[in-house]
Amino acid sequence: MSKSSFKDIINSDKPVLIDFYADWCGPCKAMTPIISDLKSNMGDKARILKIDVDRNPELSAKLGIQSIPTVMIFQQGELKWKAMGVQSLHTMEQQLNALV
């Protein structure tokens, strides 16, 4: 992912939740259905993306991703929330709903 496109994505007025993951990561696989449910529940109120840390090492390093899964929420270019490890649907919904 290019730096400019990432910057464009996180500069949205809508909150943007990003799940940083890797294909080989067991806990990341556990997050997949949770992220899918989150997308369904939030609809167009928030943007939800997954970024593979192995395919985006520069971005991962720049953002200080040290363990995966890591979930971050950005809005208008600012980091609003960051959590490492598997997160519950409820927790992520609460964080996003506080921003919409």
Give a description of the structure.
The chain is α+β, with helices and mostly antiparallel strands and 100 residues long. It has one domain (3-97): Glutaredoxin. Helix content is 40%, strand content 25%. The chain has a four-stranded mixed β-sheet, with helices on one face. It is globular. The relative contact order is 0.25. The model has no long low-confidence stretch (mean pLDDT 95).
State the gist of this model.
The protein has helices at 3-10, 26-42, 57-62, 89-97, and strands spanning 16-21, 47-52, 70-75, 78-84. With 100 residues, it is α+β, with helices and mostly antiparallel strands.
Structural class, judged by helices and strands? alpha+beta
CATH topology: the name is: Glutaredoxin
Total of domains: 1
Average pLDDT figure: 95
Residue stretches low in confidence (pLDDT < 50, at least 5 long) are none
Query: Strand percentage, roughly?
Result: 25-35%
Topology order in helix (H) and strand (E) letters: HEHEHEEH
Classified by CATH, the class is Alpha Beta
**CATH superfamily label:** Glutaredoxin
Computed Rg: 12 Å
- Characterize the biggest β-sheet: 4 strands, mixed
Number of strands: 4
Q: What's the structural blueprint in terms of helices and strands?
A:
Elements: H1 3-10, E1 16-21, H2 26-42, E2 47-52, H3 57-62, E3 70-75, E4 78-84, H4 89-97
Parallel strand pairs: 1-2
Antiparallel strand pairs: 1-3, 3-4
Helix pairs in contact: 2-4
Features:
single chain; 100 residues; alpha+beta; Glutaredoxin; 4-stranded mixed β-sheet; 4 strands; 25% strand
